[in-house]
Amino acid sequence: MTLSFRKSLLTAAALAGIFCIGAPVQAVRAEAEAEVVSATNPTVLRRLTQLQYKNIIADIFGADIKIGGRFEPDMRENGLLELGAGRASIPAAGLAQYANMARSVSAQVLDEKHRASFVACTPANVKASDDACARQFLADAGQLLYRRPLQDGELGDLVAGAKLSADTLKDFYAGLEVPLATMLQSPEFLFRWEVRAPNGGNKDAWQIDAYSKASRLSFFLWNSAPDTKLLTAAKNGDLDTPKGVAREVERMLGSPRLEAGVRAFFYDMFGLDSLTSLTKDTTLYPKYSFKIAADAEEQTLRTIVDVVLTQNGDYRDIFTTRKTFLTRQLGTVYGVPIVGAAAGGTPDGWQPYEFPEGDSRAGILIQPGFLALHSHPGRTSPTLRGKALRESVLCQRVPDPPGNVNFNVVQDTTDPNYKTVRQRLQAHATEAMCTGCHKITDPIGLAMENYDTIGSYRAKENGAPIDTSGTIDGVAFSDAAGLAKAIHDHPATASCLVNRVYSYAVGRTPTAGERDWLKQEAGKAFAASGYKIVPLLRKITLHEAFFRVAPPEGVPTKAAALSPEAGR
Amino acid sequence: MTNLSRRAALRGVLAGSAVSVALPFLDCFLNTNGTALAATGAPLPNRFGTWFWGCGMNPGFWEPKQVGANYEMPELLKALAPYRKNVTVFSGLKTFLDGNPLVPHSSGARGVLIAAAGKEPDPSIDVLVADAIGSTTRFRSIEVSTTSYASHTQSRRSPSVINSSETSPLALYQRLFGAEFQDPNAADFTPDPKVMVRKSVLSAIKDQRDRLNTMVGAADKARIDEYFTSLRQIEQEMELQLSKPAPLDACTKPGEPAANALTGGTDIEIGTATHKLFAKLMAHAIACDQTRVINVSFSDGPSSLRRNGVATTHHIYTHEEQIDEKLGYQPHAHEFERLVIEAFAALPEALSSIKEGDGTLLDRTLVMLNSECGLAKHHSLDNIPVFLVGGAGGRIKTGYHLASLGDPVSRVGLTVQQAFGMPINTWGHGSLRTSRPFTELLV
Amino acid sequence: MDSVRLRSLMAGAFAACVSVSAFSVSAQAADAGKSKGFLVSWFHVAQYFDTQGRDCPKGINPGPEEYYKRELAAIGKTKAEIDDYLKNFLDLSKMSDTAPVVQMRGRVNGQPTDVYAHPDSVPDPHIFTVEGPYSFGFNLDGKEDTGNFIEPDTGEKGIDNQLYRVTNCINEIRPHSPTEYAPLPTSYWSVVQEVMPAMLIEISGIDDEQNDDNVTVAIYRAQERAQSDSNGGMLGGMSFHVDPNPRWHNIMRGKIVNGVVTTAPQNLNIATDPFVMPEHKFTQARLKLNIAENGNMKGRLGAYHNWYAYYWMYGVGTWGVEATNNIDLPGLYYALKKHADADPDPKTGENTSISLAYQIDAVPAFIIHDDQSTAGLAR
Fold first, then answer.
1. Is residue B347 part of a domain?
2. Which of A246, A362, A475, B258 is 20 to 30 Å from A552 by CA-CA measure?
3. Same domain, residue pair B398 and B334
4. Are the Cβ atoms of A88 and B422 closer than 8 angstroms?
5. DSSP assignment, residue A392?
6. pTM summary value
7. pLDDT surpassing 80 at residue B249
8. What is d(CA A446, CA B326) in angstroms, rounded to the nearest whole number?
9. ipTM score of the complex?
10. Would B438 be classed as within a structural domain?
């Protein structure tokens, strides 16, 4: 059943690519429709992302514990790394790296400098095992690492491991390193597990269990493992009552750690992870450096956090705000002076900067973190920019180009007949097989043509004036700022965010029932709140269905499917 | 590798190399097996070396004209032509001072080998690698200098703990193969207790497998299976570490250098001949697993190398000699650069002459060859020549020219450390701090 | 410049006490009109490369093998001792033994004397100096004297540049091709750039970029260092804050004629680096600056400077400079003294200053004046 459904969707996708030629509107399909519509909510097994791994170690053992090593690359699926995390596994080379990191972290945690902070007890003899003391440390650390209390058998195994190691190595702390490192490379730590449990007396309404709920909340809102308070709330049964969940959610939303969670979400949504490996042709663009790339990432995140958290503003304003933050280095790309970054400025070199009204530098799409990221090394790409905007901001999917396309005209930036990208793309798009899709991406990408491949302003290309006018889904604009305003007002902008936030939180694309709820209820509430992020996070996490899950296989149920009403 | 992760990796390769290198890397991308075993079944160790000379190289004469694989051997590197598939050339890398004073002929070496722009007290890269791979051998590392000066070395644990060089091949022979030498083909074996307990405790994870499998659906079961397959591989590697190693077929005792053997000198001919003796001894030391890290200083930073009977040193030539307008370089300085590489060639020759497993020692030894400046005339910190020669048991791809325009030279050191499996994702200080290895080379 | 940039500058994002000089309108009240800011990417002696080799007809000055042979013989060393010395002195590991031998070759009242501290403690070795007719530079005194040069590009006569005369037959200080700067100055300047705060030039009060009879040209020291771009050049478009210490504020009256900026003579204080010259004190200094279409600037400075400072610029390196850079230090000292051409000492009548020209290259930069927030930093 599922298989055949998947197949028919694939055919539909192929057809969509073909239809692209004459009917652009059909090509822009809501991405969610490409997903398998499931009658049930599955549990999701997510591999920790690099950022989560680092956050957890820093939260539990302190920021001075160094984490070296090559992480298995995070995967992106359906626009999010957090969805890819639900598909990623750990090959042998990757596990070897995790094992190295585990040994390195354990050695630091139990070295002479740190051990007193983490091992509350003192062993009877530092050159031998001490089961009681080892048990205390391993139970405490284990609960934080596994995001749940250790079971007796598990803890017993680890304590026995500490004993064997300490007696063999004749060193209590070296002995303790071994089970700690074992936990750090265990699948219990490296994956985020979701355990199903019946919801109180209602056998039809299964949920993830209290500790899994704690993890889901914590990774969603803080991008890290639950703290002790949250684990205690799970243990006490608080997370099994709406009141208890509400209390914890309020605590988390009010915590300064919320910023880390919000940053992680937008880092994921806007694909900022790709900036770390972004290269440019530095012969043509010598100003570009990896410092610029790092600053561009930080700039976009600061701009977003300022709007959605610091100002508690309208999410859509991230596309139109004239306020941003710059460093002296970024100032060279913007061609603006950065005042006070050295003397009397902030110690980290970041300066708030506001562009004047009417400036086309509006919002995060007109920042290097978008413009440079979605360009080629030596030239811009209205197509890539338009595609990225459609996909990451509006949740629309643009088909990949067909094979056997002749790109010669587009790629030759020195042809005197086609001085601007617009001219080159027009020449290219006269080929029938291309024109449909390019109509979807290019007009919006061309609006950003005043910004070169590293995001610097240019009035002309090869001496010819640049035409930045166009329309998006029926709304006309004359330049990038106009496009930004159109994105701000586009109905898909808000609904896309709601959809992405939810997918990010649960680690999968929403089911049909969930989509309906997101659209009808969460989306309306988001609009009613003035498109504010914190109320949206609250709305999603407090919805009873947020933790809902299908019953385990073989458990009979009357209504396994989550109906739109079931959760209200 | 699963299809999914391979695809992700391929994407990374394309994105990272789009500018300077296009498709050549894909040709050998499928060669991902870094755990080749010797015929006997025992894992063969990987080894690391550094090889230093002072006063750089003339820009334009050592950088291959092509980037990527199958480059043509440039003029100054001709002596390495027989090993071209094992030689990776990095051009266009530079080091930075970040406001610290330039210490001519020293700042650049610090940049390459310590990734420090100033006086940071970090260890040199060979010490970092030795800590990772050299703790089980008799000697954590071996340092030699061919100039007769023990102080000519680039290896240090800290600014005050300098690993000074052996200057006499005979003395090195006695250290390595003298009375205290235990033939590995006969030696008793004591398993490493640390590995023993690690393996034992790791079995606790295995016991969770059945329980974990009940917690997930079919798709996730496959991922859990992959995890446990990976875990099994790690366990197998530990089992190998714990069992008595097979005799080291490659290990033979070399002949003892004559009592009146060379003891180095600044005359480049004497240095070259001394290096040849050292190269042979070091190759045998590696084959017998006496050490896994070697460091060679062929000159000091302000190179005091000279020709027989001539007082003017390589260093002086670089500063004072006129550039020959027709040739485009300083002829004498140029000649020294050529001779330095010719001398170096004795090391890959010695390593590749010893068979080990289904290859030679060179296949499992990665030597980082570098100077401390680009054009020595100006103490230029731009375009510092750095080469990787040899393999690291398949952990790194070799035989490429990677051209960059002013990237921090520390990228090479980071790449090397990752190739040796070290848990490092960032290396260096200030402008030399990098978290960008040459992923194109990493397997 | 483009309208976006203009608007951003006028956005009022800056405090009232702050003014910014860039490629555009300045907010500095006293200076109506446009300002242009530059980061200096090269500042060292302007040295003309004579493609026909007319500059040094007697040849290039020899290296230490020659002058040490002569000097050691002069203090009575035997041929064997001299040969041994010449064979070993370049082995830097033996420097502690070899350096003092020539360092103490000076004789005062028959006593060995440090020749670098007392360069006149040996006789003048008469190093070769320039005899060709051409040199970059300015006619500083308005006269066409017999010892003056001809400007190779403009044909202007009466060019005063005796520093060029003294140094250009020294291998390490002369350029080796028409397109590159001389090796030792290149090395010195690269150190200055990596280590010292950046040097800034600001042209303000520009009403007409082609012809304006009243502009202000300033040379400042920045609070920040310059940074390289990804091609190894200087990163243009960077913001620099002016060092508030008035000692490093050089404000000049200037004008623009057919796009070329010139300034009236005055004294300038420019800090570079202890390794090169801690502080340049130019007298009767004037600038001639050309701004290229890409926004970069090239130009020259002409001035007089105390000549002894140029002895010390190299002399401070003592034996190391003498042995490895082909500079016969007492020879340089005597040549500077002989060719000094200005500011006679009232008592001895000997000239204390020498005429010179510097080459200036620069890239665009934002120059930020912020007196209030940086007041505490004044030294």
1. yes
2. A246
3. yes
4. no
5. I
6. 0.76
7. yes
8. 50
9. 0.85
10. no
Q: CB–CB of A277 and B439 under 8 A?
A: yes
Best B106, B145, B319 member to test C by mutation, with max C CBs in 10 Å, is B319
**Is C127:C145 a contact under the CB 8 Å cutoff?**
no
* pLDDT tens-place string over residues B87-110: 999 999 999 888 777 788 888 999
pLDDT above 50: residue C375:
no
Task: Read off the pLDDT band of A341 (50, 70, 90).
Answer: low
Minimal Cα–Cα distance from C101 to chain B, Å? Answer: 17
A285, A339, A359: residue with CB nearest C14: A339
Domain range enclosing B399 = 35-182+255-432
Which residues are A396's β-sheet partners?
A: A30
Domain ranges for chain C: 3-55+127-377, 64-121
| The two structure tokens encoding residue A169 | 């190595």
Contacts of the segment A482-486: beta carbons below 8 A, 24+ positions apart: A482/A447, A483/A365, A483/A444, A483/A447, A483/A448, A484/A319, A484/A320, A484/A362, A484/A363, A484/A365, A484/A366, A485/A319, A485/A320, A485/A362
| Exposed / middle / buried, residue A461 (Cβ in 10 Å: 0-12, 13-18, 19+) | buried
The per-residue pLDDT for A34 is: 33
CB proximity C51 to A under 8 Å? no
Confirm whether B139 is domain-assigned.
Answer: yes
**pLDDT surpassing 70 at residue A202:** no
Q: Verify that B230 and B140 share a domain, yes or no.
A: no
Across the interface, do A96 and B405 touch by the CB < 8 Å criterion? no
Whether residue B329 lies inside any domain: the answer is yes
Per-position DSSP letters for A267-296, written without gaps between them: HHHTTGGGGGG----TTT-TT--HHHHHHH
Confidence of residue A346 (pLDDT cuts 50, 70, 90): low
B160 lies in the same domain as B239: no
Looking at residue B255, the DSSP 8-state letter turns out to be P
Residues B61, B98: one domain? yes
CATH number of the domain within which B382 lies: 3.40.720
| Model pLDDT, residue C327 | 92
Neighbours of chain A (3+ CB pairs under 8 A): B, C
Give me C244's structure tokens: 């508030």
pLDDT exceeds 60 at position C247 = yes
Of the partner residues B230, B424, B434, the one whose CB lies closest to the CB of residue A90: B230
Assign A17 a pLDDT band (cuts: 50, 70, 90): very low
Cβ within 8 Å, pair C368-A339: yes
My answer on whether B281 and B305 are in the same domain is yes
Contact C237 A338 (CB under 8 A): no
Chain B partners within 8 Å of C90 (Cβ)? 304, 306, 311-313, 315-316
pLDDT tens sequence across B354-405: 999 889 999 999 999 999 999 888 788 889 999 999 988 888 999 999 998 8
Tell me what the mean pLDDT of segment A153-165 comes to. Answer: 96
> What integer is the mean pLDDT of B26-49?
48
The pairing of beta strand B293-297 with beta strand B47-52: parallel
Distance from CA of C336 to the nearest CA of B (A): 22
B128 contacts on A by Cβ (under 8 Å): none
Cβ atoms within 10 Å, residue C360: 22
Burial (CB count within 10 angstroms: exposed 0-12, middle 13-18, buried 19+), residue C352: middle
Clarify whether residues B96 and B214 are in a common domain.
Answer: no
Q: How far is CA B37 from the centre of its chain?
A: 21
Quick check: C2 contacting A, CB < 8 Å?
yes
Q: Give per-residue pLDDT as tens, A90-128.
A: 877 678 889 988 999 999 999 999 999 999 999 999 999
C195 with B302: Cβ contact below 8 A: no
d(CA B220, CA A448): 42
In A, which residues are within 8 Å of B425 by CB distance?
A: 67-71
Residue B266: list chain C partners with CB under 8 A.
91
Cβ-defined contact of B380 to C324 (cutoff 8 Å): no
A280 at B interface, C-beta within 8 A: yes
